[in-house]
């Protein structure tokens, strides 16, 4: 009986080996999902800080226009002649070629 318990204890993996797959999954998740998302967010924040009046932009809704005024929280974007809309800064998806 004692020998059987000793054999079972010898066959059980250590606590480190039990949690190794979980740790590997977390590292894999961070490398493939978290890091690229943080990098993309940093690039978008840099883009927003560099925008100025006269830049052509595409909004997240697909509308393309030219920034006429910049503000703390909003941009004023001209989408057609004499048609201006006010959009939140985060609504700008990309700067387009002029």
Automatic annotation (TrEMBL):
Q: Which UniProt keywords apply?
A: Cell membrane, Membrane, Protein transport, Translocation, Transmembrane, Transmembrane helix, Transport
**GO cellular component entries:** plasma membrane
Topological relation to the membrane, as annotated: Single-pass membrane protein
Transmembrane region positions? 15-33
* Major location category of this protein: membrane
Subcellular localization is given as: Cell membrane
A single GO BP annotation from the record? protein transport
Under InterPro entries, the record lists: Preprotein_translocase_YajC
Q: Which Pfam families match?
A: YajC
Describe the family membership recorded for this protein in Swiss-Prot or TrEMBL: Belongs to the YajC family.
PANTHER family xref list: SEC TRANSLOCON ACCESSORY COMPLEX SUBUNIT YAJC
Q: What is this protein called?
A: Sec translocon accessory complex subunit YajC
Q: Which organism is it from?
A: Kingella potus
């Amino acid at each position: 009986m004692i020998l059987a318990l000793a054999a079972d204890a010898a066959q059980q993996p250590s606590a480190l080996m039990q949690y190794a797959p979980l740790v590997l999954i977390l590292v894999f998740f961070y490398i493939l999902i978290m890091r690229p998302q943080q990098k993309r967010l940093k690039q978008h924040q840099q883009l927003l800080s560099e925008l100025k009046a006269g830049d052509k932009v595409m909004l997240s809704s697909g509308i393309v226009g030219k920034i006429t005024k910049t503000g703390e929280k909003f941009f004023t974007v001209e989408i057609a002649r004499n048609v201006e809309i006010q959009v939140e800064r985060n609504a700008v998806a990309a700067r387009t070629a002029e």
